[in-house]
Write a structure and sequence with these properties.
By secondary structure, the protein is mainly α. Helix content is 74%, strand content 0%. The protein is built from ten helices and no strands.
């Protein structure tokens, strides 16, 4: 007699992921305080006990949701630096990542912004550490190899460079609506995004040169 397939573990994994994805959607829309466990399980069509079975607490579920979103961004960053041929192409690739991530994963992007509005309170004791080491490691190596004072400034520093890249790109998301009204243009339009990418590339590379 053929052995039976072990379907319950697969269903269990699917249920856990469904609950996590539902939590990400609600946390991204309402923040940690605005999405209750009851809201999440009703939206997921599951019982409340499953939250505590899979995640132990609402806080741990939230921490894992933030980690999941952060990891999605990390995957895009890893691909960007892996295909980079040097410092310039690495910077250009990262610019595209930080413009594309909010468009490809709006819930993930919004969730990470919520946690910053929350002053990082939801992740301060998280067992899921957030790290940009994979990006700064590439930047440090590229700076060491290329920043000789001729092509690129010799005082470039990886952490500060990454902060500047993210800052120039993320303003199109974090301040999109207030700036769109104040500047009388839609910063979310394809034309604005295209120009934003070009401007970020221009000003970053110009600032990196001696």
């Amino acid at each position: 007699m053929a052995a039976r397939s072990k379907s319950p573990p697969a269903r269990s994994a699917d249920s856990r992921d469904h609950l996590l994805q539902t939590a990400i959607r609600l946390f991204s829309a309402h923040g940690y305080d605005g999405a209750s466990v009851n809201d999440i399980v009703v939206a997921a069509g599951m019982s409340k006990r499953m939250v505590y079975h899979y995640f132990q607490s609402k806080g741990r579920l939230y921490q894992e949701a933030v980690f999941f979103a952060f990891n999605a961004l990390s995957e895009m960053e890893n691909k960007a630096v892996a295909r980079a041929e040097g410092l310039e192409s690495g910077v250009l690739n990262l610019i595209h990542v930080y413009f594309e991530f909010p468009r490809q994963h709006p819930n993930f992007s919004r969730l990470l912004r919520w946690e910053n509005l929350n002053d990082g309170q939801g992740i301060k004791d998280s067992p899921f550490p957030l790290s940009k080491d994979h990006v700064t490691r590439f930047l440090k190596q590229a700076i060491k190899a290329e920043a000789n004072g001729k092509t690129w400034r010799s005082d470039l520093e990886a952490n500060q460079l990454l902060i500047t890249i993210i800052g120039l790109c993320q303003v199109y998301v974090s301040h999109r609506y207030t700036l769109s009204q104040g500047l009388h243009r839609n910063l979310g339009s394809p034309a604005a995004i295209k120009r934003g990418i070009a401007n970020a590339a221009h000003y970053l590379l110009a600032g990196m040169r001696p």
